[in-house]
Design a protein that fits this description.
Layout lengths: L2 H11 L1 H4 L7 E4 L23 E4 L3 H4 L3 E12 L2 E9 L10 E2 L2 E4 L6 H13 L3 H4 L3 E8 L2 E2 L2 E2 L2 E9 L13 E8 H9 L8 H11 L6 H10 L2
Parallel strand pairs: 3-10
Antiparallel strand pairs: 1-2, 3-4, 3-6, 4-5, 4-11, 7-10, 8-9
Length: about 230
């Protein structure tokens, strides 16, 4: 057994993976190859309807299985310009504490449809109810292929948009968000430059900016973005 094999076995049998916490969500794995993940789903169909098997979420990166999630851009239009509403992650969360995030976001469990998961995450993270979320709009599924902690982690995000006219309505319920804030597009670009936004949340933000104000990117930048997003 070479060193790579030993490292893999250690990861598999590490308590984080082998002795599973019953609260860890199980995620669907489909027949599609990792570099061409499944990207056609009914918004209302149980996500696992066409899975071949499922695994605990934290096993996905060990085997390079594609991960799925829902993210929702919050936005409004005032003073003749678009503003984006971001949440700021609590300093107490394990991953990416203190960074800005999409208004709503979360991994996709096998037992919910994309829309049901959006409802769940919207309530937990922003205190929004089903009537609120009925105003949201599904945009697209975008895939990207990062390397994180030496693991190949193909991922696909279901992107939604929702217009939020009153930030006072937003109230975090699960303790993972410290505040919500509205930013002008120029301020969003500054946050990106300073790397103050959670990495995968950049995907829905970039998609929104391209759709609403393509002129902020030069042609070469647009080509690079489109090359990495599918």
């Amino acid at each position: 057994m070479n060193s790579l094999d030993k490292d893999f076995v250690k990861k598999i049998f590490h308590k984080e993976y082998f002795f599973q916490n019953t609260k860890i969500e199980h995620c669907s794995v489909f027949k599609n190859p990792a570099l061409n993940p499944k990207n056609k789903f009914s918004q209302l169909e149980r996500f696992s309807a066409t899975e071949i098997f499922n695994v605990p979420r934290n096993i996905l990166p060990l085997f390079g299985f594609p991960a799925y999630g829902v993210h929702c851009n919050g936005w409004n239009y005032k003073n003749k310009s678009f503003h984006m509403i971001l949440s700021k992650r609590s300093e107490n969360v394990e991953n990416f504490p203190g960074l800005y995030d999409n208004l709503i976001g979360g991994g996709q469990p096998k037992n919910l449809s994309l829309y049901e998961n959006l409802l769940k995450e919207s309530n937990e993270e922003a205190g929004l109810n089903e009537k609120d979320i009925q105003r949201s709009r599904f945009i697209a599924l975008k895939s990207y292929f990062p390397i994180h902690k030496k693991n190949f982690e193909p991922s696909t995000i279901a992107i939604y948009d929702i217009e939020i006219s009153d930030l006072k309505k937003l109230k975090n319920q699960d303790g993972e968000i410290s505040k919500f804030r509205s930013f002008e597009i120029s301020e969003i670009m500054t946050l990106l430059e300073k790397k103050l936004i959670k990495p995968n949340s950049v995907i829905p933000i970039a998609d929104f900016l391209i759709r609403k104000n393509k002129k902020i990117f030069c042609k070469n930048t647009l080509k690079e973005i489109n090359k990495y997003l599918r």
